Amino acid sequence: MTKRNFAEHIPEWVRIRPHVDKEWGPFIQNLEGHSSRVDALAISTDGQLLASGSVDKTIRIWDLKSGTCLHTLTQHTGWVDSVAFWNGQRKRILASGSADGTIRIWDVGEGRCIRTLRNNGSAVWSIVFSPRQDKCVLASSGISDGKIKIWDVNAGIVMHTLAEHSSNVKSLAFSPAKSGRLLASASWDSTIRIWDADENTAIQTLTYHNDEVWAGTFSSSAKNPILASGSKQKLKIWIVDPLTYHCTCLHTLKLDSCPVSLSFSENGQLACTDNITIKVWNAQKGTHSGTISGHSSQVTSTVFSLDGRFVIGSTIVGLIRVLEAVQSSSSSPGKFIGEQFSLQCLSNGYVAGSGLNFKIPIWNSTSRPSVRTISVSGDDQVLAHCPKTGFLASGSYEESIKIWDPATGGLQNEIEIDGRVRALSYSNDGLRLAAITSRGGKAWGT
């Protein structure tokens, strides 16, 4: 976009100009704002929001579609180690656990703290909400005592304390079934304990790890649940018996470093941090699907997007990156013909691109091939997608804006304007279209 806006100012003697690579890597978007290491990531249950918790003592709420930071939450006095979303009947809330010994409950829509739970001064390392919707139940673990607390969030009280670990509990995870019957706790005592969350009793102790266990998480399948756990250079996959709830080790996978964060996609792919990369596995088969590069510093947390198309990773320098997930070992990045000045994500996983080739290709970002091409009379198009109608607006040096139906490639409308189009944008409700031209700005009702 910057290159396009200043194209007319490039001296004529500049003959060789930079271009966009035809082969695109996995990098999609940077989310910048934290000033220090980001240790925690969480996706909202509708997949629209991302929460990040940092050593800079703040939590940021991001709109994943636009990359916009909606709120910066600043009331913690210690670094933030864990964040978790819960959708109530009236409002969406976020919990954050901090080294300041508190768990803060936030109204996500308003960006304000509505309750503070105090952990007796002990730093909070991990928090997780039960998937049950009839009651807002939160499990938390802290440093030094190895205890797990079960909270009634609305009442602000500890209902139960689970105390069988002999060292710090680094990670907690509820099973995905609606009842949230199982709770797994990964500890530095080299064990994982499986708890009956309804009875608040220990079901099983998994002792196959020889080192501190840093991470544990359940797959989203209620019928055939899988548990993954990570310790020093080792990733273990456990199959959970749906009747007895006992776990059996299915695979032991080797890594280059300690996986400090794990995340399952809806289709059973497992992402784990491995130094400066994120590795993706088919958990059921125990096979390596691929390695996602794109970070230049150690990855501290990772989470799949709700649809499994993207993996989000955070790093020790505070940078959060949205990366394309590995689809299969044979998949390759989508290819565009010619230089691309503008890209727009459309509905249903499609992407539109424009460049200097008098064409707007529409791509399926999942299966990769181009599904159709819109031919235009001018080059160097800028694009905007209408969230209300699904239509695509394009503008160029030819001093007009055209409205297209990406589903058919048909021209719906054409707006004559005064000046070359440099930028286009629809309002969030899709009711207005704004344009910046070489002679100023203008907006229209749609």
Layout of helices and strands, plus pairs?
Blueprint: H1 2-5, E1 27-31, E2 38-43, E3 49-54, E4 59-63, E5 68-73, E6 80-87, E7 92-98, E8 102-107, E9 112-118, E10 124-129, E11 137-142, E12 148-152, E13 157-162, E14 169-174, E15 182-187, E16 192-196, E17 201-206, E18 215-218, E19 226-231, E20 234-240, E21 247-254, E22 262-264, E23 269-274, E24 277-282, E25 287-292, E26 299-304, E27 310-315, E28 320-324, E29 340-345, E30 350-355, E31 359-364, E32 370-375, E33 382-385, E34 392-395, E35 400-405, E36 410-416, E37 421-426, E38 432-437, E39 440-445
Antiparallel strand pairs: 1-28, 2-3, 3-4, 4-5, 6-7, 7-8, 8-9, 10-11, 11-12, 12-13, 14-15, 15-16, 16-17, 18-19, 19-20, 20-21, 22-23, 23-24, 24-25, 26-27, 27-28, 29-30, 30-31, 31-32, 33-34, 34-35, 35-36, 37-38, 38-39
Commentary on this structure:
WD repeats lie at residues 31-72, 73-116, 117-161, 162-205. InterPro entries: WD40/YVTN_repeat-like_dom_sf, WD40_PAC1, WD40_repeat_CS, WD40_repeat_dom_sf, WD40_rpt, WD_LIS1/nudF_dynein_reg. Keywords: Repeat, WD repeat. Pfam families: WD40. This protein is an all-beta fold and 446 residues long. It folds into two domains: 27-324, YVTN repeat-like/Quinoprotein amine dehydrogenase (Methylamine Dehydrogenase, Chain H), CATH 2.130.10.10; 340-445, Methylamine Dehydrogenase, Chain H, CATH 2.130.10. It contains one helix and 39 strands. The strands form ten sheets. Strands 1-28-27-26 form a four-stranded antiparallel sheet, with no helix packed on it. A hairpin with a 5-residue loop joins strand 31 (359-364) and strand 32. The chain is elongated. The two termini are 24 Å apart. The model is unreliable at 19-24 and 327-340 (pLDDT under 50).
